[in-house]
Amino acid sequence: MNIRTNILLRVYAAFGLIILFAVAVLVKMAHVQLVQGDKYRAMADSLSTKYANVEAARGNIYSIDGSLLATSVPEYDIRMDLLAGAIEDDEVFYSKVDSLASSLSNYFKDKSESEYSRALRNARKDKERYFLVKRNITYQELKALKTFPIFNLGRYKGGMIAVQENKRILPFRDLAYRTIGYYNANSKAAVGLEGAYGDYINGETGKRLVQRIAGGVWMPVNDDAEIAPKDGADVISTIDVNMQDLAQNALKKQLIKSAADFGCVIVMEVKTGEIKAISNFTKVGEDDYKETFNYAIAQSAEPGSTFKLASYLVAIEDGKFGLNDMMDTQGGTFKVYNHTIRDHENEGVIPMKVAFERSSNVAIVKEIYSHYKDNPDAFTSKLKDLQLGEKLGLQIPGEGTPLIKTPKSKSWSGLTLPQMAYGYELKITPMQLLTLYNAVANDGKMIAPLFVHEIRRLGNTVELFKARVIKEKICSDKTLSLLKEMLEGVVTEGTAKEIASPIYKIAGKTGTAQVADGANGYKGNRKYQASFSGYFPADNPKYSMIVVVHNPTKGSYYAASVAGPVFREIADVVIGSDLELDNNHKLPQLVGNTKLPSVKQGYKKSSQSVYKSFGIKTLLASVNENEIGIDTNNGIAYKEVKMNKGLVPNVSGMGLKDALFVLGNSGLKPIVKGQGEVVTQSLAAGTPIYKGTRILIELE
Predict the structure, then answer these.
(1) Domain boundaries 242-577, corresponding CATH code
(2) What distances in angstroms separate CA 529 from CA 288, 511, 693, one per listed residue?
(3) What are the tens digits of pLDDT across the range 287-309?
C-alpha cells in the first residue's frame, strides 16, 4: 500500500466517524425532543421563575364632607394545585373531592355538584397545578371557601390558591361620574380625578416570585409578595355629595322635561373656587340620560347672551357708556354688513341697564360697533386681558380650548366685532364663563376652579390645594358695582323674573343662543342652547353657578324657562341647608291647615334631633301606626326602625342611602330602580335571608 492510499483511507475513516457522530447527535436530539420532550419541558418549567408585579391598592377618592366616592375592594380568583402535598395521595383526594364539589355547588349555586366534581377530577387527571375554580369572589366568600373540604387543609396541603386583584367601585354609582373618572393602564387613557392624580392614587407596585408551570402558566410560589406593594394616597375632592345629588337630579329632570340633547351644571364656591357640584348628562334614549362626556369643562362653544357681561365690562371700564345712557334699539333690528341682528321684542329707546336686563342684542351691538369698529383690537385685547382666551389650567384633563378672535385672525371679517358683542364668533366652555361670573361675585378677583382640596396618605396631609389667583382684579370697583347692579336687575326686572326668590337675592344673566346644525350651519334646523349663569345670595355671594341645556325640543327654548328653573331649584336647597349663610330672612307666613313635614323612615334618635331643631315634638308611635310618621295635632308620631338578624328588614319609606346601608348590613345585595324614597321591596320584611340574596327596591 503506497503512501497516497494510506492517507486517503485515514481521511475516509475520519470523515466517516464525523458523519457517524453527527447522525448520533441528530438521533439523540430527536429522542430528547420527541420521546423525552414532555419530561424535560416540565423540568424546565419547574426551574423557571421570575418576579412579577403586584398591583397596589389604589387610593380612595372622597368628597369634601368625607363621603367615599371611589375605592378599591379586593376580589379573588380561586385556583387549585391538584398535586398539592396532602392530596397528592389519590385516596385522600378522591375521598374528599365530592364533598368539596358539594360545598362549592351549594355555596355558589352556579353549577351542579356533579359538574364541579367532574371538573376537579379531570383537572386531577391532567395534573393541573393552577386550575381555575372560581373568578371574582369577595373576601367574605374567600373566608367561607377556606372552610370547605380539602381547602381547609391550607395552601400547601389543600392546594387552594387565592389570586387577589383590586376592583374599583363607586359607592354612589353615577354621582359625579365623569369628574371622578377613571385611568386605563392599558390604553393610558386618563379621565377625571382618577387619571389626573394617578401618580398619587396608584401607589407603588410590589414584587412576587412566580414559577412557570406546564402550559406556560405562572403560579405564585408563596402566598405573600416578596416586596409588598405600597397603597396609593387618598384624594379629598371639593365635591359636596348632597349638592352633587341635588344638581344631578335637578338637571336630569329638566332635560327629560324639555327633551334636550345634553346639559350641564356647575356649582362653585365664590371665595375658594372649589367646585361643589358638576353634572353632565347626554341623551342616550327616550327619557334616558347618562354621563358620557364632560361638557362643563370640555365643550367649547358660542355662549350667546351670557357673554354680554364681558362686553359690558370692557365698554364700561373704557368709559364708552354708562348704565343710564339711552339707546334706540330701532324697532329691535340693526343691520350691519348685510346681516340683520334682532331682538326678541321691540324695546324702543331704553337705558343700557334695561337693555342688559332685557337682553337686547341690538343695544350692545350698536355700542360696541360704534366705539370699537375703527380699533377692534382695543376690544379684543381687553377680552384677552380678562384671560377669556386662555385655558384655566384645571386639575383634571380635557379642558376645551377657548377662542377669542382678533383682527389678525384668518376668519376675522367686518361682521366679527358686532357678532362677538353678544356672544357669537367666539368659543368658551361653561367652566371658563362661570369663572368670569365668579370673579364679579368675588369683588373682582378671578380664581381658578378647584376640584381637589387635599392629598392624604395614612391620614396625613401630603399636599394641600388653595385658590390660585388668575387675575387679582378684573376691573375697577366702580365698574364692579354697576355689573352687580345689572345682574341683580336681570332677576328682579328683566328676563329672569320668574326665578326670583322672596327669601334671598339672585344675580345672573340668561342666554338663549342659536347653535349651528352641523354642516348646515345656522340655515338648517334651528337649534338653541339655553343657559343661565350667576351667583347667590346676591348681597353676600357664596356660590356661583351655571346651567346649560342644549337643544330643548319640548316646550320653551328660552333660558329663563329652561335653565333658570334648574338654577333656582338648586339655589333654594343650598340656601336652606347651608348653616354658614344668613338664613334669618323673613319667611312667608303659612296659614290654615298647614301639614307637618313628611318624614322618611330612619332611626328614632336621629329623626328626633332633626325635629327638635325645627321645634316639632315627636311622639312614640303605637304598633298599629304608620311606620314612616303620622301627622297629629300634638306632633309627629314616629316608630323606631328595628332590625332582626337573619331576617329581611323593612326599608319602605327610606331614602336610598339609608336603605342601602340597612340592606347591605343585613347581607343582602340590593338592586335599585327609580329615585326618591323606597315604595316597594321584592322580599317581604321578616323573611329569612340567604347569603348573597338579591333584593329589588323601587323608589319614587
Answers:
(1) 3.40.710.10
(2) 19, 8, 46
(3) 999 999 999 999 999 999 999 99
